[in-house]
Amino acid sequence: MPDELVPLPPFDDTADVVVVGTGAAGSAAAISAHDAGARVVVLEKTSADQSGGNTRVSGGAWFDNRDPEQAAVYLRNLCGDRPVPEAIVRTWAEQTQHVSAWIEGLGAAVAPNGKFPPEYPELDGSDCYGGYLCVDGVLGEGRLHETLTDAVRRRGIEVRYRAPAVELIQDPNTGAVVGVVAGGEQPRRISARRGVVLATGGFEADPEMVRTYLGLADPPVWGSLAGTGDGHRMAMKAGADLWHMDNMMAVNGLAPPGSRQGFFAMPLHSNGYLWVAPDGKRFVNETPPTGHGQALVHGRYELFPRAPMHVVFDERTRLAGPISPGAELFPVGWKLVVEGYRWSEDNSAEVAAGWLHRADTLAELAVALDVPADKLTATVEQYNAACAAGRDDAFGRPAATLAPVDQPPYYAYSSKPLLAWTNGGPRRDEHSRVLDPYGAVIPGLYAAGAVSSTYSWCKDGGFHIADAIVFGRIAGEHAAGRAG
């Protein structure tokens, strides 16, 4: 006799498609599945005022893809020796050119924002890159999140807040994903007759995963604290393979004492600063050609920065302007967009708060940083000598970026660095279907956005939002069309 089928326990609720997450990918998936005729339920682990993941506090920009053929060339070269499947390359290159039309179809105006050239102009295919496109041509301010949230609301799509997805439900006979367990105050087993879309964001806010996959020790994050790898764990338990888990974007940045979220630190008003390692020695050219996470160092693209460091500067640089750009320049990041913090123009408030160390001498500063005083003093002297000579023989920092650090008092902050986002997650195909370690599709399971970014290595500005929208749309449409 054939083995009897194992019955599924009953469900509390039923939907055609369940989407997990309310960022760009999740919203795009929900909208697309709904517009394809599916009944959609969206699960969001946070409250409404904390929702949206990193999309909420990002620049909200996608890149202007002016030539899909060249875009495919560019993506291949950005991946370098970490190629992604050609079918994904082709889908990405073709579909990213339609992001603006889709956003406009939601009722928003789209316009360019400034002149943003490609970050990797030396790579073939970079001429596809036409700069940033944004809602109303405005960078940040949560405008993309508002546009997507409004589009979801107007469609009457059900969004359940404070309802974290805690487990995928699989058919015990086939392994297909057929639902989700939603936690919260009233846990519910929700049937997803056509599919589940994971759009849960990255794992940057999970210290253990960050140590395991990125080798960083509990760095502060730039964005949402909701990115704790929930989708990664659920997908792995369901049998998913993983890809490019060691890829990320980290930046020079600092967090207030006791906070897990921090600020970009980009001293735009002065070049008078240097980076030193925990041993008090300078270790790198602080200003290499840099993209969204990688820099050209020693002839190859490397994660940059990826090690803890201290950033040292002087009174001249303190008075030159805020070391963390204000909302008038870059209205991005959790601290600025959600919490509304405004950095002081001369950094005095942050010095007074103890976010920035201050000392009358380099030796005193070394004590505050817990580095050898003789090493730090010698390092700054060597750097100043390079500035005077107009040539950095030690690390090749361009002469135009060399400015001395010689006017006391001296200042410093420590960067772990600041982790903006992660890129790796469950491996998927060009239809956003999650794959197992043998390359087979896990039926009913999809992933899009930062939980499973396309980018295996380098990426340019506006790439993440474009990727999230494209593969979120694909996931929603494909799931809606799948037989239940």
Automatic annotation (TrEMBL):
Gene3D superfamilies registered for this protein in UniProt: FAD/NAD(P)-binding domain, Succinate dehydrogenase/fumarate reductase flavoprotein, catalytic domain
Pfam families: FAD_binding_2
Keywords (A to Z) from UniProt: FAD, Flavoprotein, Oxidoreductase
Cofactor names: FAD
FAD-dependent oxidoreductase 2 FAD-binding domain location: 16-458
Domain of life: Bacteria
Keyword Ribosomal protein: no
InterPro entries found in the cross-reference section: FAD-dep_OxRdtase_2_FAD-bd (IPR003953), FAD-oxidoreductase_2 (IPR050315), FAD/NAD-bd_sf (IPR036188), Succ_DH/fumarate_Rdtase_cat_sf (IPR027477)
Record field: transmembrane: none
Keyword Protease in record: no
PANTHER family: 3-OXOSTEROID 1-DEHYDROGENASE, FUMARATE REDUCTASE
Protein name as catalogued: FAD-dependent oxidoreductase
Species this chain originates from: Saccharopolyspora oryzae
Taxonomic path: Bacteria, Bacillati, Actinomycetota, Actinomycetes, Pseudonocardiales
